[in-house]
Design brief:
single chain, 243 residues, 434 Repressor (Amino-terminal Domain), Umud Fragment, subunit A, 7 helices
Length: 243
């Protein structure tokens, strides 16, 4: 089992900081830090990412048997090859990166269990769209609930997002769409940073959903929108035929 001590041992043996190590395995520094400090149990996907990176790193730098969590692999010793050929071999053996989907029915549970590995592992997982590089970020799909973001987003739409670390919240762009986890609910809103301690959450369907002021102390997570997958094709308005 990959415990905190083993993770620190692996990371330091590779000569990487938490930030660099997190980027290499496709997770945020916050997750790596929590695992190393014993505040979060590593999921099996996290363990697989660590072991895969350690395997790839050792293969590229030594070409010899790899020591994993105190045990040597039983693979035959690899013959040293030119670097470009080693990279080609790795590219021909990709591992699918699966991302959890927080559906409408799971959102209430996510509010309470977003830091619990057991809960996250119950979520259905899907691959990333073509052209999306998962490295260096923590990813999640969220299903849109309600009509507060109509006509931009509709209920049932799927949002691919990446976690924005707390230390980077000052990089949030005003009036852009984000997924926001508060201590009470999960929201999809535009953000306006009023000051260092207060944000205004804005709905596109503002006629029935007024702006809301929220103190940053109530916000647990912010996810940056990367892709939008529509659940239905927008209905085109009737136009006058002049041809």
């Amino acid at each position: 089992m990959l415990d905190a001590y083993k993770l620190i041992e692996i990371r330091k043996s590779l000569g990487l900081s938490q930030e660099n190590f997190a980027r290499k395995i496709g997770y945020s520094r916050e997750v790596v830090s929590k695992v190393e400090n014993g505040k979060m149990e590593p999921s099996k996907w996290f363990v697989e990412a660590v072991l895969k990176f350690q395997n790839d790193y050792n293969f590229l730098h030594s070409g010899s048997d790899v020591k994993i969590l105190g045990k040597f692999s039983h693979e035959p010793k690899k013959i040293s090859q030119p670097f470009y050929k080693q990279i080609q071999i790795l590219k021909n053996h990709p591992s699918e990166y699966l991302v959890p989907l927080v559906g409408i029915k799971a959102q209430a549970g996510y509010v309470k269990g977003f830091e619990q590995t057991d809960f996250i592992e119950t979520l259905q997982k899907y691959s990333l769209p073509p052209g999306v590089n998962p490295k260096g970020l923590e990813w999640s799909y969220f299903e849109v609930d309600g009509d507060s973001m109509e006509p931009t987003l509709s209920a049932g739409d799927i949002l691919l997002t990446s976690l924005l670390p707390h230390e980077d919240w000052n990089e949030i762009k005003n009036f852009c769409v984000y997924v926001i986890l508060t201590d009470e609910q999960l929201l999809v809103k535009r953000i306006y940073r009023k000051n260092e301690n207060e944000w205004i959450l804005i709905s596109d369907n503002f006629e029935t959903n007024p702006q809301v002021s929220i103190n940053l102390s109530k916000i647990k997570q912010v996810w940056t929108l990367r892709r939008h997958i529509r659940s239905k094709v927008p209905q085109m308005k009737e136009v006058k035929i002049i041809a």
